[in-house]
Write a structure and sequence with these properties.
It is a single chain. The chain contains 4 helices and 7 strands. The chain is of the alpha/beta class. It is elongated. It starts with a strand and ends in a 24-residue tail after the last helix. The C terminus is likely disordered.
């Protein structure tokens, strides 16, 4: 989960430094010196960021906080993906929905590619996007073997 930090702000006036919290910052006659950050609880999971394709809201924390089963299927590049497993994915989605479990398809592609995938496969499940550096990691297996994550955004994943 995300960590917790305590931030204080050091300002100076008439040669005297004083520490303030965000809730009680001084007036403009004080000069900013620095920000001090103390880690209270370090983050245990870093760079876990997903955006709901429909709402454009960040849902990473929500997924991590879900105490039930969550299925996250990763398809880095929908345009280059083989739709041969779509019936199995649709069956897993139906099972998850019937048992009140969450099911998402995480992808680094958006818009028209998502629409085309839905048209090709009949996918009824929701999509979420992971952008930038994190999206490239969608192509790498957790074991570390297999695909080169630097190539995920270009649809050049090695066939397994």
């Amino acid at each position: 989960m995300r960590g917790e930090e305590d931030m204080t702000f050091v300002y100076e006036k008439n040669g005297k430094q004083q520490t303030f919290r965000m809730e009680n910052l001084p007036d403009s006659t004080w000069k900013y010196v620095r920000t001090d950050t103390k880690v209270i609880r370090p983050a245990t999971i870093k760079d876990f960021s997903f955006v709901d394709s429909r709402t454009q809201q960040e849902i990473g924390d929500e997924l991590l906080a879900d105490t039930g089963n969550v299925f996250i299927v990763t398809i880095p590049n929908l345009a280059a993906a083989d739709a041969g497993c779509s019936d199995a994915l649709n069956d897993i989605y139906d099972y998850a929905r019937d048992h009140r479990m969450r099911f998402l398809c995480a992808t680094a592609t958006t818009g028209k590619d998502v629409s085309n995938w839905i048209d090709r496969t009949g996918a009824a499940y929701p999509f979420c996007c992971q952008l930038g550096r994190d999206a490239r990691s969608l192509g790498a297996r957790q074991s570390g073997a297999g695909a080169d994550p630097r190539r995920a955004n270009r649809g050049e994943m090695e066939q397994q």
